[in-house]
Fold this sequence. Notes:
- It is a single chain.
- This protein is an alpha/beta fold.
- The chain has 2 domains: 245 residues, Rossmann fold (3-Layer(aba) Sandwich), CATH 3.40.50; 74 residues, Alpha-Beta Plaits (2-Layer Sandwich).
- Strand 6, helix 7 and strand 7 form a beta-alpha-beta unit.
- Helix 4 crosses helix 5.
Amino acid sequence: MSIIEVKNLNKKFKIKEKEKGIKGSLKSIVKPAYKTINAVNNISFNVDKGEILAFIGPNGAGKSTTIKMLTGILYPTSGEILVNNINPSKERKKLAYKIGTVFGQKEQLWMHLTPYDNFKFFGAIYDIPNSEIDNRIEELKNIFNLEEFINTPVRNLSLGQRIRCEMVAALIHKPEILFLDEPTIGLDPVVKENIRKLIKKMNKELGTTIFLTSHDVGDIEKLCKRVIIINKGKIILDDSMNNLKYHYLNKKIIEVKLKEPINLQDEDGITILKDKGKNLKVEIDSTKKEIADVIKLLDTDKIIDINISNIPLESIITSIYKDVKI
């Protein structure tokens, strides 16, 4: 059962064209020239109830514009949107009671209030009775482990603690869909992993549909079963996470600091990206080479420090964009 339905969605913007030179600048002041850009270009997709979907792409791809149309902030130029059987353009207030939003770089909590007072405030906004809001706060406090700091002013919380409270604030009115925009941005690896576990727990225990955008491959790989990739306003891939992993997430980057240089050469599954004697950066295709085998080639006795990471999401998207005809 689809909880989000998007059909032939378009959003066009008129922007001023920049004129070169002094004459061009004077001309643009008298009669500015405009050009039309397709920020979102005829996209269609559905999201099932209870699904965790990754909606990703490079900066300027059309992600934020799409989310703003799904949440009723922007009106589409053309096309159809239904979010929980509500047209966001026509019934934005009604939709607000059905959805929640968390933006990793934007705060919705009042910093001088405690999380508890913030939750009471948001409960009042959504017309939730006092007895009900207290029960709701208690439920979410336990799910998100807020006991230790629920009465501490938000300004005194760590970033990880604040993100947990942002999620609770977004869930206080029992939304059926939660839009998460970069929920783990700026967090250290341990806190990131905790936030991911909470998102999965929220999805499982509360049945919340999650619409996720992130530049962190780890978020997508560990949370989502399906991925939609958008670039230049068009959907270039809508596929399962398993297929994406097999075809595009099989490469890892190994960065190693050595006691002394070693002689490692390119071979099938191993690409040397940087070799500065004692500092080595290698790309591994894990379908052809086991990471453990590559580490043995590096000689573990000579390793001072090692870091293994995914290739950047932008590189994955660029690779897909080259492969897919749109």
